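Explain this fold:

***
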Amino acid sequence: MIFWVDAQLPPNLADWLRRTFKVEAYALRELGLHDADDLEIFKRAQQEGIVLISKDSDFVELLLRQQPPPQLLWVTCGNTTNQRLEELFDEVFTQALQLLVEGHVVVELADKS
């Protein structure tokens, strides 16, 4: 399973996910897609079977219209610090990963604290 971290999330999140969870994760800037529009990102992710990690609800709408893949880890915690974002992922990423493996198309990651 490969993850792409969308541009509105900190690019170092991809590196942190690689180190912490030993998953394959890339920031869009690493892939030359930092300035790409949502549809271009979606189409590339669709072709490659990627899991997008994004705060952008446009990807939810694209999934409803276009059908999966890709899958989406939808971050709905609002503005937060990088540290809190990492804490949140640390708390729920393993469970979110399991839901993705089970075939869930959209998995919401929300801060309940």
In short: The chain has a mean pLDDT of 95. Residues 82-101 form the longest helix (20 residues).
